[in-house]
Design brief:
Blueprint lengths: L1 H18 L4 H10 L46 E9 L10 E5 L15 E5 L5 E7 L10 E7 L5 E7 L19 E3 L5 E7 L4
Parallel strand pairs: 1-8
Antiparallel strand pairs: 1-4, 2-3, 2-5, 5-6, 7-8
Helix pairs in contact: 1-2
């Protein structure tokens, strides 16, 4: 199931981070940031991690977005959500200092094409994690609910993709939708969506 695959990839990734010399407390904080608790034993490399699926950039990408992680501002109101995740290599090693760029429409399904509402970028930390505070994107004709993202490890190609929400009625009607790109959603302590992104790096 996509949700279980995502969880397994996250756990495999943070275990490999420990092999790379990161502290257990750091791994625990990373897990807690994703709303997970570490089980007593974890395995890395049970199966080969597949590279995260690339998807179309779409017509609404704007370059040179500001570096920021909080999109919540006047004129961009909606249901709050934290979008967070882990960026790893094919061998499930965390990727620090990877560029993560996010853009999405507002609650009414409209993109800000004149400014940078709903747009920004950040970089992964030493554990390969990132976090955005934003709103749940709205719907517009022809598409299901989604986030647009770009990921780029230092000195490596860009991965452009999209993340989707489970249980959306429009998922099966959307010709771009992929169930391999479903977010894990948690509602406590706050609405959170997360995904483990696997880059095409050994």
């Amino acid at each position: 199931m996509p949700a279980e695959i995502g969880r397994r990839r996250f756990l495999k990734g943070i275990v490999t981070a420990g092999v790379a010399g990161l502290s257990l407390s750091g791994l625990t904080r990373a897990a807690e940031a994703q709303g997970l608790s570490l089980p007593p034993t974890l395995a890395c490399g049970d199966d080969d991690d597949e590279v995260t699926e690339a998807q179309t950039e779409g017509p609404y990408f704007t370059p040179n977005s500001p570096e920021r992680t909080n999109f919540r501002e006047a004129g961009f109101a909606g249901t709050n959500i934290v979008l967070t995740g882990l960026v790893v290599t094919r061998s499930c090693r965390p990727v620090p200092q990877a560029l993560v760029e996010l853009w999405h429409c507002d609650d009414g399904g409209t993109y800000d094409n004149a400014g940078y509402k709903g747009r920004g970028h950040t970089f992964t930390d030493a554990l390969g994690t990132y976090r955005f505070e934003t709103i749940v994107p709205g719907l517009y004709p022809g598409r299901t609910r989604h986030f647009h993202l770009k990921f780029q490890a230092p000195n490596n190609p860009v991965l452009t993709t999209q993340f989707y929400f489970p249980g959306e009625p429009g998922n099966l009607r959307d010709g771009i939708f992929s169930d391999e790109l479903l977010l894990e959603i948690a509602s406590e302590p706050e609405l959170t969506g997360w995904f483990t992104t696997v880059l095409d790096i050994a």
